[in-house]
UniProtKB/TrEMBL annotation:
NCBIfam families: sdhC_b558_fam (TIGR02046). This is Succinate dehydrogenase cytochrome b subunit. The chain crosses the membrane at residues 20-40, 60-77, 111-130, 158-177, 197-222. The keyword Transit peptide does not apply. It comes from Hymenobacter tibetensis. The keyword Transmembrane applies. Keywords: Membrane, Transmembrane, Transmembrane helix. InterPro entries: Cytochrome_b-558, SQR/QFR_C/D.
Amino acid sequence: MSWISNTVSSSIGRKIVMSVTGLFLCSFLVIHLIGNFQLFSADGGLAFNAYSHFMSTNPLIRVAEIILVAGFGFHIYESIMLTRRNQAARGGQSYVVDNIGQNSDWKSRNMGLLGSVILVFLIVHLYNFYYRFHYEPLPMDSAGNKNLYGVVMNSFQTWWYVLLYVLAQIALCYHLLHGFASGFQTLGLNHRKYTPVIKLVGYAFSIIVCAGFAAMPLYFFIFKS
């Protein structure tokens, strides 16, 4: 098993782990976004609260949560280790990841910074919604489910949280703009014919998903205040 350990701990091995976990997390973003669209329902949050109750009680979802947390953990850890190794190899210069183009651009040189912004947001976000939903007493809605919709509405009427949320989506968009295509390249899915298509899909995915998430706090802050 030593060859597995040596491979995973190598620079290319860490990039492969980051690519696999990163692409897995992209699938989570799509599922999470679709579920959160329940916030726009005109039923006063009943659909969103029912969705939140299902996600918190279904045993298959709970198993998926463990896998998801492991995916986040591996992705963050490998990102930190790869950043430190690249900085050491370059005498402390900024983090650089192989780019599809011939020259690196701003987002590829600052993946560590973008990831740090996302991590700070993630900690605040998990406390505000996941922790409060599971471990704090929340009022019930008319259907007998915890009223997480009320927590969302109150949070999205707080200017600094809305600002943090939107900035995090901008950082996530830049992170995905580079990471999506780079992940396929690292896994060897790099072809003169298909790479431009993958890059185009990555741009569309990054912009649509992040714009969808950013629309939620802006909607509540502008129209529900």
